[in-house]
Amino acid sequence: MQLSAVGSQLPGLGAQARGRARSKAPENWGPRAESGEPKTDQLNVAIKLTQNDGDFVWLGEVSLVSLKAKILDDIKTAMKERNQLKMDCLRFLQSAVKNREIELRPNEIKDEDIMGVIKKLVKQRQESIEQFEKAGRNDLADKEKAELGVYQTSLPKAMDRAEV
Question: Model pTM greater than 0.70?
Answer without folding.
Answer: no
